[in-house]
Amino acid sequence: MRLKSLEYVEIGDILGKPVYDDKCQLLLAKEVKLTLNYIERLKKANIQCIYIEDELSEGLEPTNVVSDELKIRSVSAVKTVFKDISERKGNNYNVKDINSIKNVVDEMMRVIYDNPETLYHMTELMGTDMYTYNHSAEVAVLSMLVAKRMKLSENFIQKIGVGAILHDIGKMQIPGEVLNKVNPLEKEEVKLVKEHVQFGYDMLKDNDFISPISRQIVLLHHEKLNGEGYPYHLSGDQIPIHVRIVTMCDIFNAISSNRAYKDRLNADEALELIRTEAVYELDRDIYYHLLKVVNIYPVGTLVQLSTGDVAIVIKENVDAQTRPVVQIIREKKRAEQLDLMDYLTVFITKTIEM
Ligand SMILES: [Fe+2]
């Protein structure tokens, strides 16, 4: 199984994983053979990538930290809570909904602790309409993985998870036309978008069920180490560690996922962009922890090697992620196997699509 952008999908491709719509309802089941009609349906639902089964990726299974089932449940819980809290304007919480977020975070915790070797990579199961909810769930898992690598306590990690899930809840008060606008935002619109941190904090500030650590993440996740963030232009040590973790994971996930207005960067490109462009804004130590938990080349990824050959990743290397085991592709078939740990002069130059 491998991930394929919708623009490369062909009639006859077999779906490797189910695809869901914006209500978390099944849109197309696993093993469905794609017809023109189905492809149109995927486009209409704003699906950007799907998993397909083909000869090239036969027998390859990308391993996800969080199962598809838990992912769908998380996204659905996030959506319910976001809607509920924004409709009630911060008062009279539905405690059951807040508990559902905590339950999801607890489940994520269990998965992360039970599978310490599993690396994170994006799983595309839903369309961009679900972006905010999907992004929230992804940032939570990623932040918790980073926090665990930093050896923070379980109790602290749980609060980081809740804060990370809720970090953009204030966006519920910003019109969708502004959030998803393709053209550059007007000055007033930029100002409004920036207010999502305060909106979010206000929604949660009287909520005793949410720890001050989680609330701080909501309010401060756009602060930057060099003082150029918002809302308070905090700098350096003024920004707490739990906030820094979520800020890093938020940026990484946002630039490596699909949005209506831009093409997605692959994990390797996203990490490189953060390394080169955000050196003064983000915490360097956290960046190195992020590097260790992100699966840069998941099983099934097509890559170009420095030799010019195209290959497919067949086994990840947890200790040296840029050097997985690959299989060269010749005439659309998998040929010789190459463990990049044994061939140190050969390296991956980029991920490709076909
Ligand atoms: Fe945000």
Automatic annotation (TrEMBL):
Swiss-Prot/TrEMBL keywords: Hydrolase
Enzyme's top EC category: hydrolase
Keyword Nucleotide-binding part of the UniProt annotation: no
CDD domains reported for this sequence: HDc
Alphabetized GO MF terms: hydrolase activity
Domain HD-GYP: from-to ranges: 108-306
Record PROSITE patterns: HD_GYP
Descriptive protein name: HD-GYP domain-containing protein
Keyword Cytoplasm found: no
Assigned EC number: 3.1.4.-
